[in-house]
């Protein structure tokens, strides 16, 4: 049986929906199950963290306005032990609030009210970013070394000072695009579209947040980066 392109995951993907609005939960559960996703739901942060530990979802859809704790605290709780993609769903529209969620470890941000098609497209993109990359020939086997850290593109691993560095799927994807273009300027629009998808191009705050996170994790002096260079108004460049 042929399925429409992009409509269904190739293998069952488990989604954890966290929202205290029953109508939204019901709509998401119906739409996701219709597309063969497996779905768990929680109405508060405590239950969400417990379900995530017990059920190990492949992606989390998280409302920030929960009755028992702020959704940003749920993100931080998850990021303490898992790299699972987190898609924030929130009525908070300001840039500062989006940046706070992204900075805590979210992978994307959808504001309410939202279109179901857009949400599902962003969810699929988040899942794709987290998927292991298949064999890619010589390029996929490349190991890129700097004086401070090593990037293994095939194994999707980063090592700094003898220790593995834990990156979220979005942090890794951004790093991978930059490393594969070592020494070349990658425009903001190209980075956004390669990492988040073709419908992106103007969300420069996403890039500022994630570049800051990569610098904190990998640069010896994050405030004066040697490897992740900003070209103001144009984009970013990775230098060995």
From TrEMBL:
Domain Response regulatory: 14-127
Positions of modified residues (4-aspartylphosphate): 63
Gene Ontology biological process terms from the UniProt entry: positive regulation of DNA-templated transcription
DNA-binding feature ranges: 141-240
InterPro entries assigned: CheY-like_superfamily, OmpR/PhoB-type_DNA-bd, Sig_transdc_resp-reg_receiver, WalR-like, WH-like_DNA-bd_sf
Region forming the signal peptide: none
Gene Ontology molecular-function annotations: cis-regulatory region sequence-specific DNA binding; identical protein binding; phosphorelay response regulator activity
Keyword tags: Cytoplasm, DNA-binding, Phosphoprotein, Transcription, Transcription regulation, Two-component regulatory system
OmpR/PhoB-type domain mapped to chain residues: 141-240
Statement: the UniProt record of this protein carries the keyword DNA-binding: yes
Subcellular location(s) of the protein: Cytoplasm
Function text: Member of the two-component regulatory system KdpD/KdpE involved in the regulation of the kdp operon. Upon phosphorylation by KdpD, functions as a transcription regulator by direct binding to promoter regions of target genes to positively regulate their expression.
Protein name per Swiss-Prot or TrEMBL: Transcriptional regulatory protein KdpE
Record organism: Streptomyces montanisoli
